[in-house]
Amino acid sequence: MKLTNQQPFIAGNWKMHKTIPEALDLVKTLGEQSSELEGVQLVVIPPFTSLSEVRKEIEGTSIRLGAQNLFWEEKGAYTGEVSPLMLKDAGCQYVVVGHSERRQYFGETDKTVNKKIKAVLAHGMVPIVCIGETIEEKKKGETIKKVGTQITEGLKELSEEEISRIIIAYEPIWAIGTGETATPSQAEEVHNFIREKLGESYGKEIASCAIILYGGSAKPANTFELLRKKDINGALVGGASLEAESFIQIAKEAIRGYKEKK
Ligand code: PGA
User: Nearest CA to 96 among 4, 171, 207?
Assistant: First the structure.
């Protein structure tokens, strides 16, 4: 799948929310409105248990499917894990890798993130690689240093061709689920750094085509201003993706922001 940032990219990370009937309710409503959302690339990322059912429900719409995590081996004695083969089989085109909650609660490191990215790419899916600083790091002025290291380590030994198939999500940890959003200019500064860094390492063309998402309390009220910024191509949305109305509103604001991109 060739990635493009010519249209905004909005992904809803449902985290550990929604039973199968609840998940179906939500995507049914999204599906009904999907014709109004033609100017946006829309992805839903349900928990593993509802992937298959959601896949059936979104068939024939423009909505695409992603998963929240995976293990890098294809199969084996790894109780409780889910493999790239299984996710592909369930209809996933995207996989979130290295979300800060996984790093914080489940011990993921840049090293494991790197292995997961490679596994996702090897199976023809697109990793959505999450990076971002803690509040302490932000206060110490270490945002760029942290994000820079996460990119260098997380993307280690990937070819240019592979880099052209990944999505990066900048998610300042202090903004996730807190209601506090990075200001558009704070976010843009980091997004611009990420794009420049990709340019230095992999060339201008890859950098200019890269999809770089913002995440952290994205909501209808702040999406327009964020998406207007040059280097912000979309949003990874948590809380506000759990209701069809706010998720759709975010998608619409993203389209509006993109039209007025500076
Ligand atoms: P939030 O979560 O929108 O609820 O802050 C974003 C994320 O963790 O991806």
Answer: 171
Region 108-122: what's the mean pLDDT? Answer: 98
- Of the candidates 75, 74, 18, 82, the one whose C-alpha atom is nearest the C-alpha of residue 50 is 18
Q: Which atom of ligand 1 is nearest to the CA of 15?
A: 8
Taking CA atoms only, the protein residue closest to ligand 1 atom 6 is 238
Tell me which H or E stretch contains 114: helix 110-122
CA angle 158, 45, 122 (to 5 degrees): 25
Report the pLDDT value the prediction gives residue 48, as an integer from 0 to 100: 98
Report the percent of the chain where pLDDT is more than 90: 94
Q: What is the pTM of this model?
A: 0.97
For helices 20-33 and 244-259, give the axis angle rounded to 10 degrees: 40
Q: Measured between alpha carbons, how far is 225 from 80 in angstroms, rounded to an integer? A: 41
Q: How far apart are CA 97 and CA 253, in angstroms?
A: 26
Q: What is the DSSP letter of 12?
A: E
Average pLDDT along the chain: 96
Q: How far, in Å, CA of 42 to CA of 30, rounded?
A: 10
Res 226 pLDDT > 80 = yes
> Is pLDDT of 179 > 90?
no
DSSP state of 120: H
What is the set of domains in the chain, with CATH numbers? 27-259 (3.20.20.70)
* Ligand 1 binding pocket mutation candidate from 44, 100, 101, 236 (most atoms within 8 A of CB): 236
| pLDDT the model gives residue 1 | 74
Assess contact for 248 and 33: CB atoms under 8 A: yes
C-alpha span between 206 and 200 (Å, rounded): 10
| Per-residue model confidence (pLDDT) at position 36 | 84
